[in-house]
Amino acid sequence: PKSPMALLESLGEQPGIAVVWADRLTADQVEALFAHLERSRARVFLQLADPRQTAELAAEAYKRGMYNRRLFLEYSLRERLAVADNLADAVVLLRRVEEPVRAEALRAVRPDGAVAFQERVVRKPVPKGAGAWSHHYHSPDNNTQSEDTLARAPFLTQFVVEPRYAPAPQSAVAAGGRIFMALGHVAWHEREEPWLNTLVTLNGYNGSMLWKRPLVPGIMVDRSLMVATPSVLY
User: Fold this and answer.
1) 182: β partners
2) Is the separation of the CB atoms in 87 and 208 below 8 Å?
3) What is residue 2's predicted lDDT score, i.e. its pLDDT?
4) pLDDT of 143-183, one tens digit each?
5) Beta strands 120-123 and 109-117: pairing type?
6) How much helix, strand and coil, in percent to the nearest 5, is found in the chain?
7) Measured distance CA(225)–CA(220) in Å, rounded
8) φ, ψ at 123 (rounded to 5°)
9) Which residues of the chain are modeled with pLDDT < 70?
10) Residue 218, pLDDT score
11) Which residues sit opposite 171 in a β-bridge?
12) What is the structure's pLDDT at 118?
């Protein structure tokens, strides 16, 4: 992109989480930020080193109905983003970029996510050892033993998202950083009813709902119904 803020535009209307890290935003950058929020489904975490502008942008976001819904703000002088590891789909750096700042941005962005600074875009590589769960019982041989070598104790919660309560039965597969959940035809409570007979796809790093589709009513999802690849769900 011609500027780091152009990375936000390149994300289009897709849902996700973007991080913007700056000392202070210019008027043009503020305008570009709110324009992106108006026409996308993304959530933006903005970390600033200016307490007055942080308060002003919080008030403006509240007036637009975006505060802590679409735009989340943090004032901090620390050289660390208040974001979990591998969470953001994109990180935009609007500040002086030295190696510790660049390394911190790469910590916060998810594998295959992008970091933009000056006129450069750097993508975080997918680490070796990241496993997939392509079939109902892990793989075509029905051996339910994960081959992932990165997930180790101590375990921490990465995100909590909808659907927190879902119908039964259920089945899930995962590949390419996405989770596909087939939700069945039985609901015991009203809170589960909106998800009856639904296929839901989530970002595997931050839980953003990418899309959902209706399933044939009453289909038995607790079987070898789906095969996930990095690019296609069968």
Assistant:
1) 171, 199
2) no
3) 60
4) 999 999 998 898 888 899 999 999 999 999 999 999 999 99
5) antiparallel
6) 20, 30, 50
7) 9
8) -100, 140
9) 1-2
10) 87
11) 182
12) 84
Following DSSP, what letter does each residue of 95-159 receive, concatenated?
A: S---HHHHHHHHHHEEEEEEEEETTEEEEPPPPTT---B-BTTBSTT-------SS--SSP----
Task: For residues 102 and 219, give the distance between their C-alpha atoms in angstroms, rounded to a whole number.
Answer: 48
Q: Give residue for tokens 């998800």.
A: 195
Q: What's the one-letter identity of residue 124? A: K
Q: Vertex 230, ends 225 and 234: CA angle to 5°?
A: 25
Q: Give me the count of residues in the chain.
A: 234
Residue with tokens 């942008």: 57
The rounded mean pLDDT for the chain is: 93
Query: CB of 221 within 8 A of CB of 169?
Result: yes
Beta pairing partners, 21? 47, 93
Q: Are strands 120-123 and 168-175 parallel, antiparallel or unpaired?
A: unpaired
Q: Which residues have C-beta within 8 Å of that of residue 48, sequence separation ≥ 6?
A: 22, 23, 24, 25, 54, 57, 73, 74, 75, 76
In this structure, the strands spanning 178-186 and 168-175 are antiparallel
């890290």: which residue's tokens?
Answer: 21
CA–CA distance, 216 with 234 (Å, rounded to integer): 15
